[in-house]
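User: For my dataset I need records formatted as: sequence, then structure tokens, nothing else. Please produce one.
Assistant:
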Amino acid sequence: MDSTTAINILTSSEHMEQRYFILVQQFQELLNKSWEVKISHIYREGNKVTDFLANKVHSSSIGYHDFEVSDSGLSFWILYDILGISQTRLI
């Protein structure tokens, strides 16, 4: 699923796939609260922590995963993101 599809699912009231129903419903409840919410797409290269975690859990089972900040590489990428270091996206 690409990011545009994910944003459309979250902001649409149309029928969604059953396997995403509870997750989407929870996101929609958060979006409907009385606060300002903006959903935008950021390439994984722009958020190294997310990229690191996505790569790490890619082959893991679905469910809750708890990571220590001291986990190999994670603290480095947290600092990388805090400092706002960016790199050109190669397509």
